[in-house]
Amino acid sequence: MKRTRRNHGATFKAQVALAAVKGDKTLAEPLSVHPTQITEWKQQLLARAVDVFGGPKPPSDTPDLKTLHAKIGQLTLKNDV
C-alpha cells in the first residue's frame, strides 16, 4: 500500500524545530518526521529568528498591485479598440 504524502502545518514545524533547538528530544526520537527534515526546519528557524524581534526586513519581492492593475486596464482598453 502506498503511503500518502504528509503536509505539516507551520505550528507543528515550529514546535518540532524548537524542541530540536532546546535539545528536549533527540532527532532519533520518533516525531513522525525524518531527522533530515527536522534539521532543515531547525536551520530555517535559526535563520529567521531575527525577524521575530524586528530585524532588518528583506526587500519585498511582491510587485505593486496598483501599478499592475493600471497596466492591465490600459492593455484591456488597447485590445478593445
Brief summary of the model shown:
It contains three helices and no strands.
Describe it.
There is one protein chain. The protein has 3 helices and no strands. The protein is elongated, with a radius of gyration of 22 Å. The longest helix has 18 residues, at 35-52. The protein has helices at 10-22, 35-52, 65-80. It has a domain at 1-56. The model has no long low-confidence stretch (mean pLDDT 81). The protein has 81 residues and is mainly α. α1 (10-22) crosses α2 (35-52).
Secondary structure blueprint with pairings:
Blueprint: H1 10-22, H2 35-52, H3 65-80
Helix pairs in contact: 1-2
Number of strands: 0
Which spans have pLDDT < 50 for at least 5 consecutive residues? none
Average pLDDT for all residues: 81
Total DSSP helices: 3
Global outline: elongated
Assign the structural class, choosing from mainly alpha, mainly beta, alpha/beta, alpha+beta, or little secondary structure: mainly alpha
**What proportion of the residues is helical, as a percent range?**
55-70%
The main sheet comes to: none
Radius of gyration: 22 Å
Strand content: under 5%
| N-C termini distance | 58 Å
N-to-C order of helices and strands:
HHH
List key phrases describing it:
81 residues; mainly alpha; 3 helices; 58% helix; 0% strand; elongated
